[in-house]
Amino acid sequence: MTSYDLTDEKGLQQYLEANQFPATSVQLLSGGNANYVFRVTKHDGSTSIFKHAEPVLKFNKDFALDPARMDYEVRILEALSSRRSPLPTSPTTSNVRPARFSSYDQSEKLLEIEDGGRRNLKDAYTDPKLDILYIGEQLATWLATLHTAARNFSLASAHEGQDSRNNPIAVNVYRYSYNDLHTALTQFGHDPQLAFLVNEKFGSLLATDDECICHGDFWPGNILVRDAELQPVELTIVDWEMVRRGTSATDVGQFAAEAFLLDRFRGGRGLLRVFLNAYIAARGHTEVLGKAWLMRMVVHWAVHIAFWPTRIAWSGQEETRSLVDVGVITLQNVLEEDWEKVLESPLLRDVKETYSTLLSRP
């Protein structure tokens, strides 16, 4: 059996030729830390995206990551692309959708999906042609639909039992920032015991959360933007390999953290505020969204803010320090259940009227 090096353009080109795929060009894309992603142009000028998973991260060969993660991405994309999709289409968010599944070579861990565009929302955020408030509202409404409509969806394959209905790879990876939070706190002079306490009390819950299907890596970098001049703009959700059954609070907290960073460093266009308000409006008055949910969302936001900017810099050292400080103060306020201060945090101060209502429910 012929082996192909699917980590570079030449190897993928050889693979495509051997499999009678009509490609005129193969371009390795720069985005993504984990996988090798290519844009392939066909003879008719159309394009598609190929994504290949290796047993280690693309930019950190010392970090092992089971390539079976891609099997779970295929599983959810196939389900969402089928006529019996657990995610119903809605006229209010018809411009937001997951990437369409095309093909998958499981032995090579090579996935083909549609090309959703050449820019992600993080890069496109400053584009004055984009209506950021509209986009934030659309994404929040779509995410709420995912969390409610796919509540009982199983990620198990056809030959697996319901005991295996989650993605154990994603469940394990998702605790990474909680496990390593102590390093960020130590680096900037904070007591690492806070990180250990947060990990023990909240990070441990990630292993057993089972409310609904979560995207698992929902942030502006995984939302592709096409045709900014058109209304409504097309938004494609990609990178589903960390899909898992969990709590919706983590998807919301992760996007809120990155929206906060975009608003803070790239022009203050109000993405955080509109996203948070629209999500609550879309979920409505349900039994899920109460004080416990709010606590999980705020904690996840604060862990993200305190940890990830120390790994992926948004600004200089002092600004990074201020972000860690914000995360630490917010975590301390949550642990002390000082909700007056939590509602005045940079996360909630502009939406406190909406989110204070959650405190009256469990």
Task: Explain this structure.
The chain is α+β, with helices and mostly antiparallel strands. It has a domain of 244 residues: Aminoglycoside 3'-phosphotransferase, Chain: A, domain 2, CATH 3.90.1200. β2 and β3 form a beta hairpin. The chain is globular, with a radius of gyration of 20 Å. It starts with 8 loop residues before the first helix and ends in a 7-residue tail after the last helix. The model has no long low-confidence stretch (mean pLDDT 92).
What's the helix and strand layout?
Blueprint: H1 9-18, E1 23-28, E2 36-42, E3 47-52, E4 56-57, E5 60-64, H2 69-81, E6 96-98, E7 101-105, E8 110-114, E9 119-120, H3 121-124, H4 132-149, H5 168-173, H6 176-187, H7 193-201, E10 212-214, E11 223-226, E12 234-237, E13 244-246, H8 248-265, H9 271-283, H10 291-307, H11 317-335, H12 339-343, H13 352-355
Helix pairs in contact: 4-9, 6-7, 6-10, 8-9, 8-10, 10-11
